[in-house]
């Protein structure tokens, strides 16, 4: 698995592998766990992570010593494209691979890398992200969760919110205030905290969809080893910001395939129920198609100029584009359905259009809200004064 | 009560007081996830005890004899709190019945006498709200009619004792009929709904006994449709205002980056645009009330236009409310999504935007 | 003329008078001097002001001792409605009657009222407004034009911009800084300055329409009598703010008739050239109609609750509504024309659609930009913090 | 010159340098109000002296033989400065001629040899840009044709020596013909235009001598239309970017209320949205260049889509530019309105938004 392969070979390989896996033992997992469907099929999807890991599909471009596999940026995009095209299940390992992994590669000690990365690439460990806090929202520098150093441990007390997968995760990467007198960006540290300990309580948050993707996590004298701090004490902000850059990274490009599937489904529905004959709806559908084409061209352009990865700025433009686009498509999906979209299944069971409509409201809030992205673009790309 | 502006303000205030105590948003939140989807005790309180059903029923029929604005004020107060159930549809049906003239008087008398809650059933699969395509059949004559057909996405039916139904008689004429929910041949199936504050039902009629409410040769079905649109408009305008208030209040107290987020100019400007939209919706709804009160010939036009403007305004305000609240606005326990879902149901009920816009254009002679 | 008349009588009277005047001696003035057409037919429109004045149509609701005429708020609206309906010419006396007059009535001395108001109601004096300055724009408190008191006169030096009608005006009401050490709202005074004096130079500003409605006015030791200061020295801000309130007053309500005429013309054009058959354009036209209906209902609502006049807040909502609406209609007007709208007459002579398209860009800038109105609404109506 | 990215950057830089010196916005402002409406000396400089007309003409025809991106880079640099005249239309016509294959080689050889500037005439009264409705007639055969008909809103004709024209022969087949402006029977009347940076002409042909440029049986007229749309797209994307830069620079220095107005968050957020739109337009235009370079089958689709997106983006940016500049942006001497007017001409030329959107949908198989 060491020798580099061509993009065509790579595509054929992942496509073939996905087809086999998803028509075989994981057939039931197809289409589960997408946006707004995080609550589905946990056991099966956990097994799926291990299956992916065993086949070497986790940690593309990571060093082989940690279980990674050589892959160009283009091949990473191909992976995401094929993954979406196949309708493969939503990744429980998303945080582990897209957020924590790159952070450890950039900032981790050799021991941390050796300990944690192989368990990510094997699909064994699931990680969750402990950044947001109640009352802080998009203002990450407002972190109030405290970590007090006692010997070779930190003792952590505080509360995090919007922690997806916390109820399933083995570990959490947590931004804590280690200098009690500090404010804002200073005095924060980046700690790796085991979830399975008495001081950690997870409480699911019920969302407007009626389901729970997100959780509150309470730390009540929870413990993390000092050796599991990433970066220097007080430098957690820098480490976390590095991770945020990765978050809006290469997977955005592959995401487009999923968007196209969604759009095609809405258009197909409009054609079958007559909504396509309604000029105002048809114009909105065509505009959605055009918007997706613009995003696709933007992604290709980024890819051509990216080299190692996306800068935060390009990522901000991309986030603002797709979040807003997807939210609009969600509304369009129910408008295409018409009044029939107002009826749900028993127990508030939502169909695809309804789920899309409701869940996509989160797109423009999480991972840096539209407002935060606009601040970043205005100040850092355009250079407008603070 | 003589219907002066002061009387009107007093009625509104007293209803608001009761609703604040018994049917605020927190209560709506609880009620909507219950089995019934509405609060029977509140219905009882507002009807039997407060006599709201008789508010605008003429005195000679046993009502208080007040004018249209008394009922619309109550619809607005219910709308601002997204109160589930058949209270708004009852008042809407009563207003429509008033507009139908003498033929509807027996129904109005019965409403007061028996404290009947009402729903209005117009839409059908395939036809939607296009009255011309109504397929429900009425057979019979005089006071004895039998209705057969299926009405869909009917609001209020889960809590109503009588349903007003549009149907076509053997001569092809469209009319308005009253059906007792409890009568033989009436099957009401209530669905769970995207907008949890407004359950919708399928009403199946098989040779169901009915009385005719409108006078032959009139435009009773259109009167009914216009009043349903008016209900959606009034509710939406009131809800949009409540939702903006909720959001602005939050922006004043919520701090980020060391400042109340309501001090950030980008958010302020967006709120200002919402305030302009809300003011416009409110003025349009007020105008519609005047139209209903004076019986102006522009009723269909004004109702269609107001439903379009007010539903869109509520949707815009509620979508921004979720965004401006950030993560907390995405939680089920928060109220923002109730307004958002209510906005979508107001947009999609009683005619799609495209259909209603085309009607407005035609009625305006454009 | 002292006895009150009914609204119906009032409407019949003004309608009859306008018809007679505009089919008779002022037939050529019909349709001149509208938005973006301020440069047209000056002589005739100056004579028109005197004609209006002689007939008692200037100063509605002003005290009769100053040449005013009793009129209810509803009648003032009726006047504006009938005026617009008749296609009567753009008012050269707009600033005099809508801005200066109400200011003098509220803040003027008896002598000032007696001297200036009768010459406004007679249509003799034309006034212009000296508020905006280069570099200050919407920030009126940034006034830098200085007025130094010397005996019974002020000596004024500075520059004003966006002064419409300055080249025709007899007088200018000018906001000056009389306290040289002051900043912002303090230290300003409101002076009445004769335009016909050596220290005043007017230079027209060519706008993007190629025409000139607006001017720069240079004051180089221009002189104003101390007795012609309105309000106390240093209290000019308060006086000017009073005037701004009036500016966005009752005439806005009558304006709607003019908007409806414009909209009807665009729709008629769309029907005749086939654009109406294009669903996207038709939807925009119907939405423009709906938007105008909403403005109309808003205006009626304000009128019902207004009593004496409009508050600044209601005026801000109204300004934002109509400016944005009219700007959109301008764009729609050329889109309805299609590519033919790209051709102008010789010398950049613009037709109605082109003039509307270009000039309406000013609507959202002058008289308090959209941004200023949003600030006002957010802070003063919604109570959001500064 | 081999056409590497470095070569391309060098060409772009050297053209930009010349234009900055000879054809910046201030100069555009002067030139556009002159009698001719363009700068003949600049045309001479860029053609005869810099040899831009030969840039992408194959070497065996006397050109430099560079690839498509060399010409599109020049179109973008001209577009960013709103340079009036026939330079962009010349390069557009040359790119189209290249795409037409061997049949167009004689024209390309002549272009280099005689330093011909070119315009492209497609639209007709009634037909607009609907190729199927083209009514201009071509009679003749082989190398000798005579054209009769009227083309309207033709950009570049005021400064071009040859006009490429779509016309229909006696068999009803649509083709592309080259007409010398100076030939008998050719009457070019140039109009004053709303977008003063782009004069438009009516070209009347009465039995005008012409040569056929495309090969029979091909889609030459479509190739021409696609390239005109590409020109509008590339110009607009570049102009949108220039206009945003202009505006952001102003917001950084202009002070109000004691602060640079660019520090006000509401304006910042609006600029951020513009930056996103500009980035999207630019990516879409870049993609179109790749399509033209590779001769991909998606040419018509990509050109239509890019013209729609880029023209709308320019219009949005330029409208905001006027608003964000405030009063100064409303003056004739300021540049903001030039972008605004250019945006409208890009929107209205080569097909209305509705027509182009419908084409995109059809070509995408939606």
From TrEMBL, chains A, C:
Domain Acyl-CoA dehydrogenase/oxidase C-terminal: 234-382
Residue stretches spanning the membrane: none
Pfam families in the cross-refs: Acyl-CoA_dh_1 (PF00441), Acyl-CoA_dh_M (PF02770), Acyl-CoA_dh_N (PF02771)
Domain Acyl-CoA oxidase/dehydrogenase middle: start-end pairs: 128-220
Highest taxon, organism lineage: Bacteria
Residue ranges annotated for the Acyl-CoA dehydrogenase/oxidase N-terminal domain, each copy included: 8-124
Keyword annotations: FAD, Flavoprotein, Oxidoreductase
Cofactor(s) needed by this chain: FAD
Homology family: Belongs to the acyl-CoA dehydrogenase family.
Entry protein name: Acyl-CoA dehydrogenase
Higher taxonomy: Bacteria, Bacillati, Actinomycetota, Actinomycetes, Micromonosporales
From TrEMBL, chains B, D:
Family annotation (Pfam families): Acyl-CoA_dh_1, Acyl-CoA_dh_M, Acyl-CoA_dh_N
UniProt protein name: Acyl-CoA dehydrogenase
Family of the protein in this entry: Belongs to the acyl-CoA dehydrogenase family.
Cofactors: FAD
Top-rank taxon: Bacteria
Annotated ranges, domain Acyl-CoA oxidase/dehydrogenase middle: 119-193
Organism of derivation: Micromonospora chalcea
The entry's keywords: FAD, Flavoprotein, Oxidoreductase
Ranges of residues in domain Acyl-CoA dehydrogenase/oxidase C-terminal: 223-361
Domain Acyl-CoA dehydrogenase/oxidase N-terminal: 6-97
Keyword Oxidoreductase applies: yes
């Amino acid at each position: 698995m060491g020798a580099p392969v061509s993009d065509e070979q790579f595509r054929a390989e992942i496509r073939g592998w996905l087809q086999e896996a998803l028509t075989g033992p994981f057939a039931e997992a197809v289409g589960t766990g997408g946006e707004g469907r995080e609550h589905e099929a946990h056991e099966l999807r956990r097994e799926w992570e291990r299956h992916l890991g065993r086949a070497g599909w986790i940690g593309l471009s990571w060093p082989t010593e940690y279980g990674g596999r050589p892959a160009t940026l283009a091949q990473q995009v191909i992976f995401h494209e094929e993954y979406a095209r196949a309708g493969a299940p939503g990744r429980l390992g998303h945080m582990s691979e897209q957020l924590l992994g790159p952070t450890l590669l950039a900032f981790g000690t050799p021991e941390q890398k050796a300990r944690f990365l192989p368990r990510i690439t094997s699909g064994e460990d699931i990680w969750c992200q402990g950044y947001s806090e109640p009352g802080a929202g998009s203002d990450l520098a407002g972190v109030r969760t405290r970590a007090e150093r006692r010997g070779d441990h930190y003792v952590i007390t505080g509360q995090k919110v919007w922690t997806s997968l916390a109820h399933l995760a083995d570990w959490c990467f947590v931004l804590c205030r280690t200098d009690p007198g500090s404010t804002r960006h200073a005095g924060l540290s980046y700690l790796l905290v085991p979830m399975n300990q008495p001081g950690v309580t997870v409480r699911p948050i019920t969302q407007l969809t009626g389901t729970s993707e997100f959780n509150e996590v309470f730390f009540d004298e929870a413990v993390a080893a000092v050796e599991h701090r990433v970066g220097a004490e007080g430098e957690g902000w820098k480490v976390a910001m590095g991770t945020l850059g990765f978050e809006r990274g290469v997977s955005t490009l592959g995401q487009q395939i999923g968007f196209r599937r969604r759009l095609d489904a809405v258009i197909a529905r409009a054609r079958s129920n007559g909504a396509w004959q309604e000029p105002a709806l048809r114009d909105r559908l065509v505009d959605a198609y055009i918007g997706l084409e613009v995003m696709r061209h933007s992604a290709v352009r980024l890819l051509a100029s990216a080299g190692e990865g996306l800068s935060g700025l390009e990522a901000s433009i991309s986030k603002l584009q797709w979040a807003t686009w997807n939210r609009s498509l969600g509304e369009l999906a129910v408008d295409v359905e018409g009044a029939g979209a107002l009826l749900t299944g028993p127990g508030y069971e939502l169909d695809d259009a309804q789920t899309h409509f409701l869940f996509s409201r989160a797109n423009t809030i999480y991972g840096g809200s539209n407002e935060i992205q606009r601040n970043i673009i205005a100040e850092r790309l355009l250079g407008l004064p603070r | 009560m003589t219907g002066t502006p002061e009387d009107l303000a007093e009625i509104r205030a007293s209803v608001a007081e009761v609703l604040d105590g018994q049917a605020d948003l927190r209560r709506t939140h609880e009620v909507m996830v219950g089995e019934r989807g509405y609060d029977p005790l509140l219905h009882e309180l507002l009807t039997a005890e407060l006599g709201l059903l008789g508010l605008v029923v003429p005195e000679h029929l046993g009502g208080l004899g007040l004018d249209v604005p008394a009922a619309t004020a109550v619809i607005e107060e219910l709308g601002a709190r997204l109160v589930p159930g058949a209270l708004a549809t009852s008042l809407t049906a009563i207003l429509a019945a008033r507009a139908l003239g003498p033929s509807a008087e027996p129904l109005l008398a019965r409403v007061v006498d028996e404290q009947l809650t009402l729903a209005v059933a117009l839409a059908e699969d395939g036809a939607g709200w296009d009255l011309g395509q109504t397929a429900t059949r009425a057979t019979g004559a005089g006071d004895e009619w039998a209705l057969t057909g299926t009405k869909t996405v009917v609001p209020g039916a889960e809590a109503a004792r009588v349903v007003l139904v549009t149907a076509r008689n053997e001569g092809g004429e469209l009319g308005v009929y009253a059906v007792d929910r409890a009568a033989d041949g009436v099957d009401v199936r209530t669905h769970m709904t995207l907008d949890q504050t407004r359950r919708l039902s399928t009403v199946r009629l098989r040779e169901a006994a009915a009385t005719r409410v409108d006078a032959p040769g009139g435009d009773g079905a259109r009167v009914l449709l216009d009043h349903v649109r008016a209900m959606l408009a009034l509710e939406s305008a009131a809800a949009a205002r409540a939702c903006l208030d909720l959001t602005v209040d939050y922006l004043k107290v919520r701090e980020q980056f060391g400042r109340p987020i309501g001090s950030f100019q980008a958010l302020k400007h967006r709120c200002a645009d919402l305030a302009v939209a809300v003011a416009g919706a409110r003025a349009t709804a007020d105008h519609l009330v005047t139209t209903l009160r004076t019986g102006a010939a522009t009723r269909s036009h004004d109702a269609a236009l107001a439903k379009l403007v007010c539903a869109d305004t509520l949707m815009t305000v509620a979508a921004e409310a979720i965004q401006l609240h950030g993560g907390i606005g995405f939680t089920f326990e928060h109220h923002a999504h109730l307004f958002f879902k209510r906005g979508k149901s107001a947009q999609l009920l009683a005619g799609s935007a495209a259909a209603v816009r085309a009607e407005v254009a035609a009625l305006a002679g454009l």
